[in-house]
Inverse folding.
């Protein structure tokens, strides 16, 4: 016989849900999972590029969140806290799968204003608009090919649209480090996509291709 269906209407808002979690009410953890699981899974999938690994990150995230709830200080929203746990779980998985090169740590000592100017731009900015499904697919492949620390920054800033400060809080970095990593990630994406973009036919103002 199936158990009772748990709906989010048990708690009207996040504050009531958090109160229920802290009181260890039986429906609270189920409601937390139903509220945040879709976005947690989406973030995990973007980080890992593998549905099975993303499912593992999803499960571990909520196990750890429920276990650590008494240590949640409320300085951020419950959702932000859970997404940070998910991000950390995804990054730890990626580090176990493929360690990050030590050279990446050098960027922490570089200021954004010390970075060289970007190369000549193209009519298409691969980070802001994908004009075709093929370009989107190539961009997704390029993001998955980035080192773990660069991938996390570009996903949070350019894909999910978080601010520099929000990204820094999620990853435990300074805003300056986020800017440095984002610049490096965008440069690598441009280099990865350069051949495709330069070989693609341009379109005139009327939308007709110009060979």
């Amino acid at each position: 016989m199936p158990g009772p269906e748990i709906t989010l209407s048990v708690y009207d808002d996040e504050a009531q849900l958090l109160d229920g979690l802290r009181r260890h009410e039986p429906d609270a953890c189920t409601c937390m999972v139903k509220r945040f699981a879709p976005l947690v899974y989406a973030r995990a999938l973007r980080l890992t590029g593998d549905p099975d690994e993303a499912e593992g990150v999803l499960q571990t995230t909520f196990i750890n969140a429920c276990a650590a709830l008494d240590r949640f200080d409320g300085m951020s929203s419950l959702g932000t806290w859970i997404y940070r746990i998910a991000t950390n779980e995804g990054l730890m998985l990626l580090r176990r799968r493929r360690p990050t090169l030590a050279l990446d740590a050098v960027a922490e000592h570089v200021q954004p204003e010390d970075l060289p100017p970007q190369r000549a731009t193209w009519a298409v900015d691969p980070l802001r608009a994908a004009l075709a499904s093929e370009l989107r697919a190539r961009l997704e492949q390029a993001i998955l090919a980035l080192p773990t620390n660069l991938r996390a920054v570009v996903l949070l800033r350019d894909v999910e649209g978080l601010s520099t400060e929000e990204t820094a809080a999620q990853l435990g970095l300074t805003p300056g480090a986020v800017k440095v990593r984002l610049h490096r990630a965008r440069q690598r994406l441009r280099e990865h996509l350069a051949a495709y973009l330069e070989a693609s036919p341009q379109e005139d103002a009327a939308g007709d291709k110009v060979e």
